[in-house]
Amino acid sequence: MCTLLFIISGVNPNSSSLSGGIRFVSWNVRGLGHVHKRAKVFSHLKSLAADVVYLQETHMKPTKERLLRCSWANQIFQSTFSSKARGVAILIRRTVPFRHGSTVSDPNGRFILVTGHIHATHVTLLNLYGPNFDSPTFFRQIFNLLSSLADTHVILGGDFNCVLDKHLDRSTQSSQLFNASTVLNNMLSSTNLVDVWRLCNPTGRDYSYFSQVHKSYSRIDYFLLDSKLMSKVVCSSYHNILISDHSPTSLVLDFCGTKQQGNWRFHPSLLSETSFCQFMTTKISEFLETNDKQDVSDSILWETFKVVMRGEIISFESSLKKERRKRLFEIETELTQLEQDHKVSSCPSLFQDIIKRKFEYNTILSSQVTDQLFRIRQKHFEFGDKPHKLLSRQLRGLQASRAIYKIKSRSGEILISPKAINERFKEYYEELYMSKSWGNISDWLGKLDLPKMNDAAREALNSDITIEEVSKAIKSFPNGKSPGPDGFGIELYKKYSEKVAPLLLRMFKHSFHTQAFPRTLYEANISLLLKEGKDETECSSYRPIALLNLDMKIFTKILANRLNGHVGSIIHPDQTGFIPQRFSFFNVRRLMNIMYHRHWGASKIAVLSLDAEKAFDQVEWAYMLRVLEKFGLGEQFISWVDMIYRHPSSSILTNQDRSAPFFLHRGTRQGCPLSPLLFAISIEPLAIAIRNEPSIDPVRLGNIKHYISLYADDVVLFLSNPERSVPVLLDVVRSFGEISGYTINWQKSEFVALTTNLDVDFLKVLPFKITDRLKYLGVTLPKDPKLIFKLNYLEQVEKLKIDVEKWRALPISMVGRINVIKMVSLPKFLYLFLNLPIFLNKQFFKVIDSVVLPFVWGFKTHRISKVHLCKSKLKGGFALPVFQFYYWAANARTLAYWQEGYKKIKSADTPPWVVIESGGVENSSLPALLFSSSNSRTKVNNFIVSNCVKIFSQIKKGCGLPDTSIHTPIYGNHAFPPSCLDASFDIWTQKGIITLKDLYIDRQFASFTQLQNKFSLPASHFFHYLQIRNYVRQSIANFPSLPEEGSIFTLLLSSPDSKKLVSGFVKAFSEYLNSKSDFLKMAWEEELGLLIGDEVWERSLCMIHSCSINARHQLIQFKVLHRLHYSKTKLHRIFPSISSICDRCKLGEGCLTHLFWTCPKLYNYWLNIFNCFSDIYNCTLEPDPIIALFGFSSSLLHLSSAAQTTVLFGMVIAKKIILTLWKTDIVPQFKMWLTELTALLHMERIRYILADKLSNFFDVWQPFLDHVLKQSPI
């Protein structure tokens, strides 16, 4: 058997001491019942120098566990089953510094899970024996078990009884991969676990099991390791198959490696501490009073301020932690005594004291938890328990993308040492950021006529920075972002903006005077993100994100805010990246129009997509500054940019290691607010040079010359006569690269010939990849438009199926699954909907639903119609996406450009694709196609336009919209032939009668005299008036009154650049959902024997999502109102053998009303809860099923909104307690409710802290807390 060694030479894999390493051995021993067998096994384990042993198939009865005791193992953990089957055990050598935490034992003898610490590392040891049949359910169970763990390092080993790779893990070939293997592979990718041996033997073969029956070998025994532990791996190996038919598998981990001390970072949760805020206010004032002197420069004052404040914060944190630890110890001691006393005497006051102590304990712990949650980021915590375990999975997935546990050295050797990985990246980026420019910048730029910033814009860019701009920049940054090297977070800057902003402004002004910023402003950390689909072992596969210090980010944000408002005046519409009011789908739509246009005659047409290498990272600063000067941005502004790039340095962050800093000499930092705009300006001269080069022939379409399309560094070129254009183009790009640093990977650049008449010999010598499809901005565009659907939409459906199968094992609620669809799947489809305007029929969306809905329901019976899940949250639903609505909305948003573009078709601001599409219609116009009858015929010569017309016809039919709208244009309307034949109607347009709506005055169709008076129409146009009146009478409903057409047509007339226009359309389409819930209200009325008012019902639905931040609580309320729980009567109807009688009282029929309310066993439970709230708010709150079940009743209106919030939350928890005991005969108790509610308040408190609204928490909950704690103060 082969042994794999990792970067360690001269190591004996069987040595008992590998640089302080601990040897883990996993072995299926096939029974340890016989004394001789045990002796052989333990002898062999000794020879392997095993420290931690995972044994499978011990075949031990529970009464025989003592047989595994031996002299060298002092900690033994077992899960037994019988003397003939299963059984697993973990044995730990005495010398291993393992401190036991907890144990989870499978009663079926399949797994044993042990948590604890090895040295300072928290570990979870999980030993499993997988079923010897295809059982994906077992591995889903393991997945659920792992998902409940947090802040630990999993070491999973055992006999899995299935292969991970059907080709490499078997000695004989098999085309079948069992479902268990598929689930296991999905689990690995989702949980950030690594098959250690396979990782470093990607194509190697070794086996752990020999089948006597099939005479074949297979690898079914593994160690799966948390990727965060990969840096601790010393070696992994399979040993000889002896004693058993399985080989021992070993793994050596070194837990003694020194850990680099992390950088300090501010914990925003401190701002919720009143004492801290007062402390900081005092310390800032003391600092300024002591140090703000005339002989201290503003730059030194700022640097000193940061150093002193960091020290003060660290001091405060240390003191606070000591106080908390002391108080926690005191509470634990008090609780121990109180609980002992309460066991003897069930005195209510003792229970009250226990509740008080536990609440205080949780409150202190909440402060510590909040720190961790801030690292997870606020928006993830806001999902609360929606996908509690999903969130864990998402975070581990994020860590998986950032944990770099192997990288190739310059020579191609695989490095796994954290220090070696960090050094390799430092080496790579230090070389990448070295200047390599050698061309003459002035000569190259001197040949171009670059547009100049106008005087007003230049003056705005170069004016003095104001305190208002500093404050605005501080407010603009979102909370929860990773800080720079100095560790300060934006939350602190925001809290003390009145103090910080003036100091920053003074420092900026002093730096302008000295032409250099203080040293720390130039520092940054570089965080690395793996690009999708890239080789994780290549340094070039990672995107470097610069984590700047906030003071520098604030300054660059100020410059970016200024430049943002004017950059569009100097950047051609061909560039859409990072320019306001320009979008990526402009580029895709333009490319599609050119690719799918019929190019007649002898034209030779091609498109070329350039693959730029590290474009942002290779911008030469001397070139960039010269370009800014040529564009006329102004001396002061350019000086500021020059200061930013005067002495920048960076350190590489990998696996919590931080490299030594190194200086940068080129590149725009990804993570700097100003960088995108600087890059757009820097690449613009290339576009200008290409447009100005007479030997490069553009594609002429829509009366526009199409040369180039850019989205930041993604460049597509449109070429006529490629034989003549390409050689010149190559020269232009190469010469530009010499001065700017711009580098093209020609082998990865793609060339698509759109006509068939290109010279074959010419194509053979091109340095590009010749292809029949273009991958551009995330979509695939084939030459044949019929393949768009297959290569994009169907491919995305297949990816969705794969994702759903992977997510199937996620232990999350229905709400969590809906959120997965909304957060992960919907954006991918929406991107396609926005960029690829092709007609999709209803069947396509049924296919999506056939994948999504089973997943949402957990692959169980669908208990209610989809429309109730799709309702908005205000209507009591969960806003499950209706994919067809998003498809309609995305296309309707782009169609709004047709209306907008028609108004200014000759304007330079009109997107080129709109101009092309307007030219693809004969005897009509784009708005006329939208708003007039779809039955009328006109000639459309554009593939995209014809698809858009079909899409909008589908929208009108689906929403019951009229064929002809009052927004239909009069002139150039194919459905009104006179407007296309008689130019007189153009006069009407010029006079202001543009659409049919303009013919109405005071909501009535105007007479000719009224139109004459308002628009000055000549009397000779009376016949034209009669023509248009006849057309309106036939086409528009309610003639002569102005009809109501709803919001969809109105939205189409909105500015297409409007924010949230897509969501506006989705909301409008959702109004057409038939989601009435009257049948549910009637069912409750029938069972309760009460009438439920419509207002109460609607408000109860609306309050589902305000009952708690916790999504599982919201789901409880949703299920109760929608009657989704299985009652005894419902189960009896499905399974007649099941009794319909209530399990608790054994008296009444177990309908939902009985199980939640009328059961006599629940009387005291509900009475005590209502009495509790009556005491809290000093009122009489009679037990009411409407309040208990729905959370709202008119009888609560006399209470404050805060009190209503508390009652609603309390009722949800009351129902939660009942549901916890749903399948038992145990009677819920008031104490259970009070304990649960009190325990949950610390999570509520965290929520308010994260929102910086702790005072609101006390506004809501103080009366309840006073009631619970009133007997004696804490």
From TrEMBL:
Organism superkingdom: Eukaryota
Domain Reverse transcriptase: 510-781
Molecular function GO terms recorded: catalytic activity
Pfam families recorded: Exo_endo_phos, RVT_1
Cross-referenced PANTHER family: REVERSE TRANSCRIPTASE DOMAIN-CONTAINING PROTEIN-RELATED
Protein name: Reverse transcriptase domain-containing protein
Record organism: Oreochromis niloticus (Nile tilapia)
